[in-house]
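Appendix B. Chain record.
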Amino acid sequence: MYHPSRVHGICTINNTATASLGRFMDRIKGVMQAEKQDGRHSLNKKNLSKFAEAYQNRTEILQDFNKKINVDVLLIAGMKSKYVQDTETIHKEMLPGLCSMIKV
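C-alpha cells predicted for this chain:
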C-alpha cells in the first residue's frame, strides 16, 4: 500500500491471495472472442490488456499482510462461493482484532 496514512480500512469481496492460475484470463479471452463474433464492442481492448498483464504478474501476498496492512480489514464472501476457503485463510493470517470476516 503506497499511502497507508490515507486509508482507514479495507473492505474486500470474494478475494483470493494466491498467484494467478490463468483461468480468469481464459474466461476474459472467451468473452472477447464472443464479442468479436457478435459484432459488439463494449470492452476497451487497451484497458483489458493492461488489466490482464497486471493480473498475471501478481504474486502471493499472504505472507506480507501483517507487514504492509495495519488498518482494519473486512473480508466478505458468499457461503457457496469458491473464494470462501481463501477468505478464511486470509482471516487466519491477519493479526487478531485487525480483521473481520462476514460470510453471506
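Further analysis of this model is presented in Appendix C.
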